[in-house]
Amino acid sequence: MYQALLADAKFHEQLLAFDRDLAAQRRAAGCPDCGGALHQANYRRKPRGRPAALGEEHDRRFSFCCSVDGCRDRSTPPSLRFLGRKVYLAVIVTLIAAMRDGVTERRLGKLATTIGVDRRTVARWRGWWLASFTATPFWRAASAGLMPPVDASRLPAALLERFAGDAEEQLVAFLSFLGPITGGPSMQAF
To answer: What string of DSSP letters covers 16-69?
Structure first.
């Protein structure tokens, strides 16, 4: 059911619209350090795993730069499309790592031809979810409020299952939940 979302251009358009809204909110709030106006300073990403039919606007990471001399700090808003500095889209990193039955040779072959991801990359993602992600201050704080506790050995699937709705609504809620680690200073840790 989630696999259909990976190729759904409308779903990716929706994620882009959410990112535009998050960027507008960040820009309207001004520089988090000095309160100065923010100028657009988007940068190009080369995301892997996106449907080929999507336009170049899907490769842009929204970002801003403070207009105040002496500050000029970059301010990058949260994103539902990008997971920190990871090359693959957040939806890809999430859904492939969340496969309930694991990645069999057959599934890996299909992923390799469809998305271009290999076994070592998937293993790194699983390691990131199970070790690096669970060690973040964000996860320690967020997981403390989840009852019953999330089985961290089943991340990201165990967390994805906590969100209500159909597959699309669950995934959007999950990616929104991860927002604090996708932009700003916390992004540098990933």
So the answer is: HHHHHHHHHHHHHH--TTT---EEE--EE---BS--TTS-GGGGEEP-EEE-ST
